[in-house]
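User:
Note these tokens:
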Amino acid sequence: MKNVDVKFLKSILQSAYLPDSNKSIYDSGSVVNIDIKEKDILLDISINNPTHHYKNKLEEVIRNSFKDIVEYKLQINFLLKENKNSDTKLESVSKVKNIIAVCSGKGGVGKSTITANLAVALSKLGNKVGIIDADIYGPSMHIMFGIEDKLPHKINVDGRSYMQPVESHDISILSIGFFAKKNEAMVWRGPMASKALSQMIVDAYWGELDYLLIDLPPGTGDIHLSLVQAVPVTGAIVVSTPQPIALADARKAVGMFKMDSINVPIIGIVENMSFFVSGDDTKHYIFGKEGAKDLANELSLDFLSSIPLVEYIRECADNGQPAVNNNELKIAEIFEQFAKKVINKVDIRNDEYLKTETVKITHSDGCSNK
């Protein structure tokens, strides 16, 4: 065994690589301090990604690199880098009045369908609206708006190059689906997915919008944390079916946004696939009756709407024509009433509460309410 000194430890870190990167830990500038005290090796490592998943992976890489130094105890302290580009991030959405996260907890509850039709309904009521399809692993907005063959163009604004969102049905849209091949799976780890979301926010020219809807993936993971760190989210809308299994995850989604360290107001809960109306006008509660409404009451949240299970909604989504555009059908009125309630609740939220701040992680344990 060589003499264990700082120079030797640096050489080890020059041969170990950051997760999902071709940069060594040392050459990336992540090593803030190396110290040796008796039989302890102390490392201070600076990171951009505060999630447990990333830190566990990086710690595993470091410990494997030091595994032959058995006579020393290794202590690793992770420090979150200050984001020098935070002003740039906020500048990209500085003309957006309200950023609304649309989440579900459970997949398959129709969150993207709700987002698409809500966006068009808000637009029909005279608002400028944008959508970011942040469901990195299962993007669908490019399909629901009939723009599968489109690509964002580059534009120059004040000497800086931006992506220009694709316009469809008067909605500005960015989706990872624009950049993925039809049969190509997005097999990305958390940091790569979070970077993709950040680029759709920071590198896009959104201009003046009344509402920017963020269609989040199911669950409560890296993408959700990255969103609240990147931009001040005005509020969250939670989508669920009446089914107890979906409601269990909707409850977790509410809990995530209510964490002290995140603290994003809940605009309300919307129930999708509430009931099916048969030919004789009988309502059939296929997934249970008023489960989301009961959850909203239990959690003292606003209940925004009950969206029925209608074949026409599915057909319109598959054909790139949001159902709310058909003014002759009852479903268009339902979505427009839903949009009016969202507008009202967002206005109340803005009158009663201060603007939401971006989440700042100031410790190495990630985002926690402990």
About this structure: The domain at 86-352 is CATH 3.40.50.300 (Rossmann fold). The mean pLDDT is 87. The two ends are 42 Å apart (CA to CA).
